[in-house]
Amino acid sequence: MSKILVGILFKEASLLRDQRQPALGEIFPPDAMDEMFMLHLLLQSWRKLSLFRALHTQHPFTLYVYSLSEDIEYGMFNLSTNIFGPSICIRFGDLGFAFVGDGGLQHDLAGLGPYELARQQLHPIQFDELAARVHYKSALRNATHSYIHSEDADTFRCQQMAVVPYTKSKPIDGSDQVFKPWSQKQLAEVLERYEVPGFEYLIDEAGEAAFTRLVDEDGQKLSLKD
Fold it and tell me: Which of 41, 147, 34, 132 lies closest to 85, judged by CA?
């Protein structure tokens, strides 16, 4: 199905929407085909061995895995996404996953995720708060990667070469701006948008996400009873 989809979109990117009005452009925007790059790589991997070398981690994405306690009040399943990240977080049963298609940028910044809690056990409402934080961070991404790829008869190779910021603006320390500045007020809006249970208790009178159920004042993981 994916191969058919890419084939149709590729063809539509070369056909005019209306031949009588060329100014209307193609049926599918040619520039949008760039968004199909990773899908195309996946399709290529099915016909030959694919080797991918990433800058930040073993894989070209960010993935955090968590163990979850059970609490029937909050259910056994929750799924949330951010198409602009892009990111997806899912919990089912005693497992939780936070995935970001960012080439590994969040992983490079925080190898164990927010508050370094990856691979630890969380309460379901803790995971839902953490998921909102991952989604918000993914939306702050302000850079991408450059790649080179090559192939022979048996192998397809792709390698990340460098982080490429979207803007030339630099923080005070002169480093590249890979992520836009974090805002506790924006985080508060994200917590509400994702309907994190009890989000109102995490927001102070100024409308900022000043509190968390993830760690205490010393940065130690909080344990919530079921």
Answer: 132
156-206 confidence digits (pLDDT tens): 888 999 999 998 887 778 788 999 999 999 999 999 999 999 999 999 999
Beta-carbon contacts of 217 under 8 Å, excluding residues fewer than 6 positions away, are none
Distance CA 220, CA 130 (A): 15
Grouping H, G, I as helix, E, B as strand and the rest as coil, residue 52 is: strand
DSSP conformational letter for 194: T
Determine the residue type at 40. H
pLDDT digits 0-9 by tens, 29-58:
888 887 777 777 777 667 788 788 999 888
- Written as six digits, the tokens of 197 are 């249970």
Residue 166 CA to residue 168 CA, distance in Å, equals: 7
CA distance 98 to 130: 9
* pTM confidence score: 0.77
Counting every residue, how long is the chain? 226
DSSP string, 202-219: G--TTS-----SSB-TTS
| 190: phi then psi, degrees, rounded to nearest 5 | -65, -40
Upstream peptide bond of 114 is cis (omega within 30 degrees of 0): no
Measured N-to-C along each axis, helices 2-12 and 37-45 cross at an angle, to the nearest 10 degrees, of: 140
Q: In the chain, what's the furthest Cα-to-Cα distance?
A: 68
